[in-house]
Specification:
mainly alpha, 5 helices, 0% strand, WH-like_DNA-bd_sf, Homeodomain-like_sf, Transposase, ArsR-like_HTH
Amino acid sequence: MTKDLRPNIIRAHEKEKGVREIARFLDISPATVSRAIKRFEETGSNKDRERKDIDDFPKRLAACIAANGGCFE
């Protein structure tokens, strides 16, 4: 889903539009609409979630190297 769709989904949801109606109008799946609404209700934001596994990869890689590669087994 593009970042541009999220605000449109939330605006439609706030106007009391149903998940299926929003999905049909934006030509996306109802599951995508539901996830966007759920994320907004949980976080209050349309922004992407932090990708912790990728963001701290250099730190984890350094720990694996220090452990002589033991974490890759």
